[in-house]
Amino acid sequence: MVILDLLAILVFGISGGLTAVRMRLDIVGVVVLSMVTGLGGGWIRDVLIGATPPAALVDWRYLVTPFAAGVATFFLHPALGRVERAINVFDAFGLGLFSVAGAVTATEHGLGPLPATVLGLVTGVGGGVLRDVLAGRVPTILRKGELYAVPATTGAAIAGVGLHLGAPTSVVVVLGAAVTIIWRLLAIWRGWTAPEPVRSRD
Q1: Helix axes 83-108, 149-164, angle to 10 degrees
Q2: What does the alpha-carbon distance between residue 188 and residue 153 come to, in Å, rounded to a whole number?
Q3: How much is the pLDDT for 190?
Q4: Among 77, 73, 70, which Cα is nearest to 35's?
Q5: How far apart are CA 167 and CA 161, in angstroms?
Q6: End-to-end CA distance of the chain, in Å?
Q7: Cβ(65)–Cβ(6) under 8 Å?
Q8: Is the omega angle on the peptide bond into residue 139 within 30 degrees of 0, that is, cis?
Q9: Per-residue pLDDT tens for 177-202?
């Protein structure tokens, strides 16, 4: 689980750093936004399940990873190509990894499939929400038509239900994360959106 957490923190940290680069913030802003994005979802998860203090305050690797991601993004962002496209890609990977990590952690703490799925969703979107709020943007999960929460919930459900049924952790992690990441990227590429209520004719 530590490796999965750190990988999710890394890619979400890059996503936060790229958002700061897009806003033309200095190196402090890039690192702060990177750390908030990388650690936000995990902190919310740990507090909700009573795993306090959060892992980031116990294991130094949890703090160093998003810090390094922010510094690296600040200096290397030109190599990442178009910033907005790179943000979307790293955000999709972070969403998939964190959604699954949240569900797995919840299951390890004795929660059933449904609460594990909910906690996976919260973990997946938490860092992105904090990133967007600090960046002065409407959080992606709340933007009209964005297919964001549905892929995250699906990936978390695959992990939560799979573990409840006794499937190997490695299998549910790979499957759940892959479904979320691929679905999110296809939604961006193909312009898929979440269903909206049908308006009645006056």
Answers
A1: 30
A2: 17
A3: 87
A4: 70
A5: 9
A6: 54
A7: yes
A8: no
A9: 999 999 999 998 888 887 777 766 65
For residue 6, pLDDT over 60 is answered with: yes
User: Based on the number of CB atoms within 10 Å of its own CB, is 61 exposed (0-12), middle (13-18) or buried (19 or more)?
Assistant: middle
Provide the CA 117 distance to its chain's centre, in angstroms: 14
Residue whose entry in the numeric block shows the structure tokens 């890609």: 89
Token pair, residue 97, equals 């990894």
Angle at 141 between CA 140 and CA 147, to 5 degrees: 95
Best CA proximity match to 20, nearest among 75, 89, 92: 75
Q: Give me the mean pLDDT over the 49-77 stretch.
A: 90
- Burial (CB count <10 Å: 0-12, 13-18, 19+), residue 144: exposed
